Amino acid sequence: MAETHSLQDMRQQATVASKVFIQRDYTQGTMCQFQTKLPADLEARIDKQQFEETVRTLNNLYAEAEKIGSQSFIEGCLACLTAYAVFLCMETHYEKVLKKIAKFIQEQNDKIYAPRGLLLTDPIERGLRVIEVTIFEDRSLTR
Amino acid sequence: MSAVMITRKVRKWEKLPGKNTFCCDGRVMMARQKGVFYLTMFLIIGTCSLFFAFECPYLAVHLSPAIPVFAAVLFLFVMAMLLRTSFSDPGVLPRALPDEATFIEMEIEAANGNVPPGQRAPPRIRNVQINSQIVKLKYCYTCKIFRPPRASHCSICDNCVDRFDHHCPWVGNCVGKRNYRYFYMFTLSLSLLTIYIFTFNIVHVAMRSVVSGFLNTLKDTPGTVVELLVCFFTLWSVVGLTGFHTYLISLNQTTNEDIKGSWSGKNRIQNPYSHKNIIKNCCEVLCGPTYPSVLDRRGLMQEDLAALAALPSTNSDTVSQTTRPVLCLQKTTAPLIPNEHTPDEAKSIADSAAEKSSSPKEEQPPSAKLPPLASPETDAEASIAKDKPH
User: Fold this and answer.
1) How far apart (Å, rounded) are the C-alpha atoms in residues B127 and A129?
2) Which ipTM score applies to this complex?
3) Does residue A88 belong to the interface with chain B, where contact is any CB pair within 8 Å?
4) What are the distances in angstroms from CA B106 to CA A47, A65, A118, B101, B111?
5) Residue A138 in 3-state DSSP?
6) How far is it between the farthest Cα atoms of chain B?
7) CA gap B25, B321 in Å, rounded
8) For B93, which of A7, A65, A129 is closest by C-beta distance?
9) Pairing of strands A131-136, A118-121
């Protein structure tokens, strides 16, 4: 039977086999970057290239959010002059990028990870400490 | 194999571990002890009220009306910075959920190998290389995470805070990554306000004394004496503090690192976070991006009130997602770990964990009822006590 699992169906029917946590990569300092190395537990489920591509894109998005450039400087100055009241009506640059990241993860889950019985959790829900990858039981093996 | 659970929706801040108080339905986050913060507010508002009542009418007429206007602007800025520092999340790192905690424990055990019985397990430390320096990441027994570089656990608030600077009782909150620049702007603007009020008090007394005599002046405006006293004592401490933090910012260091001497001394490594350029360091600390809070305080979650049937209710399911539908019917095969929602439970877990390893239990809650003053001496004592078993 050809099935396209939607995320909701997946989670309501499938059993969680285990979880893997992708740790932060601190080699470039305290910037939010994640390790691109594919954990052993996922080797059977997903292609190394694909996974590295996902994590690398995430890293680039976080780097964009934390970039100290003219935009962050102008935003900071404007905010300081208004005693930071401007943030009551305006979204910060970081928050805008976080929304982009949430959309990206949703996309990746729908297209790549859900069909393989995996689920990526947005790192913001884990305090930007880890990328939690939930591995669901491979039901195709039991059929 | 399903269970029917009676749940109700609560805001996440109600279930957050740690010793913080929340107001305005999770929008405001402070430490538990707020007495000194109220004192700060009282001193600032009181002194400024006296200034506007006694000095400003005279100075506006005899010198310039711009004087009270500028004082008012400065006062509003100081209050805004103070409230922003006190009410915002300093950069608290959420604790590891049971799955993550188990995963890390398994990694640690795998790394340590078989420890012969009777021998202590090695301390839980991870080495990372940052800018060609080796930095040690310590394991936090309360939060069950390896602390990111520059993060530290605040024993007063019982939270790990990212880029932890210090816990300031005067603002009633920790000072960390998210509110450091507001704290610095607060001390800077308060220094300016204090100097401003002090200067114009003296100008006012001098001008009036020429006309009515020194003692008569003090009798006419008793507020001046109070203001002069408050400003005099505030000047030394606040201006000193501003100078100290300016020095720290130029070196891209935190108070915590400075007190512990992390980057000083011959055998210690150099600060890997400094850009070796004062302007760049200042830009990074003061003009960097505004980091969002990773503690979702106002998100909704399901709280289990009662669970009927054989399935154990695992709170780990309920805290995982906010916007996605919460699963009450999912059976998980992850091992159960006591939920560390209460600090007391966390402490008992930390106790038993600390017995197994030789690492010191760093998160000692303060036994004194008075909040320790955020002076380098008390912080140094605390850090020496922490570092002794090393």
Assistant:
1) 16
2) 0.85
3) no
4) 25, 33, 21, 9, 9
5) coil
6) 92
7) 19
8) A129
9) antiparallel
pLDDT digits (tens, 9 = 90+) for B180-232: 999 999 999 999 999 999 999 999 999 988 888 888 888 888 888 889 999 99
Which residues sit opposite B138 in a β-bridge? Answer: B125
- Cα–chain-centroid distance for residue A61? 10
Burial of B207 (0-12, 13-18, 19+ CB in 10 A): middle
Beta strands in chain A (DSSP E): 16-22, 118-121, 131-136
Residue B140: active-site member: no
Find the closest chain A residue to B299 by CA distance. Answer: A125
C-beta atoms of B103 and A21 within 8 A: yes
Contacts of A29 in chain B (CB under 8 A): 130-131, 149, 272-273
CA distance A93 to B34: 32
Average pLDDT, rounded, for chain B: 79
pLDDT tens column, B264-288: 776 667 888 888 889 889 888 888 8
Question: What's the 3-state SS for chain B?
Answer: CCCEEEEEEEEHHHHCCCCEEEECCCCEEEECCCHHHHHHHHHHHHHHHHHHHHHHHHHHHHCCCHHHHHHHHHHHHHHHHHHHHHHCCCCEECCCCHHHHHHHHHHHHHHHCCCCCCCCECCCEEEEEECCEEEEEEEECCCCEECCCCCEEECCCCEEECCCCEEECCCCEEECCCCHHHHHHHHHHHHHHHHHHHHHHHHHHHHHHHHHCHHHHHHHCHHHHHHHHHHHHHHHHHHHHHHHHHHHHHHCCCHHHHHHCCCCCCCCCCCCCCCCCHHHHHHHHHCCCCCCCCCCCCCEEEEEEEEECCCCCCHHHHHHCCCCCCCCCCCECCCCCCCCCCHHHHHHHHHHHHHHECCCCCCCCCCCCCCCCCCHHHHHHHHHHHHCCC
Closest-CA residue of chain B to A132: B100
Select which of B140, B143, B157, B168 is catalytic.
Answer: B168
Q: Least CB-CB distance to B130: which of A27, A75, A94?
A: A27
Please tell me the distance from the alpha carbon of residue A113 to that of residue A73, in angstroms, as a whole number.
Answer: 37
**Cβ contacts of B185 on chain A, cutoff 8 Å:** 80
Contact B218, B225 (CB under 8 A): yes
Distance CA(B328)–CA(A60), nearest Å, equals 36
